[in-house]
Amino acid sequence: MGTASTNSAKPAMRDSLIAAAFQLFLERGYEQTTVDDIVTLAGVGRRSFFRYFPSKEDVVFPDHEQCLADMTEFLAASGDTDDPLVRVCGAARLVMRMYAENPTFSVQRYRLTREVTGLRTYELSVVWRYEKTLGDYLRTRFADRRDGTLRANVVAAAVVAAHNHALRHWLRSGGEGDPLAEVDQALEFVQNTWQEGREGPGAGGVQEDAAEDVVVVITKRSTPMWRVVREVESSLGES
């Protein structure tokens, strides 16, 4: 009984810190809120804060580490006969489900990251980690292909871009509608484009009106894939 009480107290304290942090962020602003302010409102000590969150930025994204772990485990459990594209799309759905579990919090965080440049940068680093996790899995599955590394990188970037397109649309609406249905539609587009048997986007026939816009991005080889995707999205009119 004692062990159960201790274990249940830990999530409660963590949730209290998150709630206190966002209350202060909304009231005072992110930059004006300190860790001391957060622990005072939560009624705990600084040591308790840093037990759960390495920094103030981490309290804004408290669920991503677990989601990354879940995604990694999900991909590792894939069998040799599983379609790798279907698998990475399934992994992306895990991320959307994380956001959908708490729409109010997700919308508040979205608005906060739009206002604070440092948080936007932090968020992009998290997105890169998701993309890297997908890419690592795909590179293993495509290892016997001559274009395996290229295909893995491009497909991983496409899955992340499709997921983020659906996620942003849902968050901008204030959390209205069904985000899982939106991401399914976006990921279906990726699967139809990159499913086995196709050579790449548009293979199997291109409609006359499908080739109106061509975007060329010139970038350094060392540029992270998430930055390349953002440049493409910007060129296409995504904000």
Task: Give the topology.
Blueprint: H1 2-28, H2 35-42, H3 46-52, H4 56-60, H5 64-76, H6 84-100, H7 103-115, H8 117-141, H9 148-172, H10 179-194, H11 225-235
Helix pairs in contact: 1-2, 5-6, 5-8, 6-8, 6-9, 6-10, 7-8, 8-9, 9-10, 9-11
Describe this structure in words.
With 239 residues, this protein is an all-alpha fold. The protein folds into two domains: 11-60, Homeodomain-like (Arc Repressor Mutant, subunit A); 62-197, Tetracycline Repressor, domain 2 (Orthogonal Bundle), CATH 1.10.357. Helices cover 70% and strands 0% of the residues. The protein is built from eleven helices and no strands. The chain has helices spanning 2-28, 35-42, 46-52, 56-60, 64-76, 84-100, 103-115, 117-141, 148-172, 179-194, 225-235. The longest helix is centred in the N-terminal third of the chain and has 27 residues, at 2-28. The protein is elongated. Mean pLDDT is 84; it is low at 1-9 and 202-212.
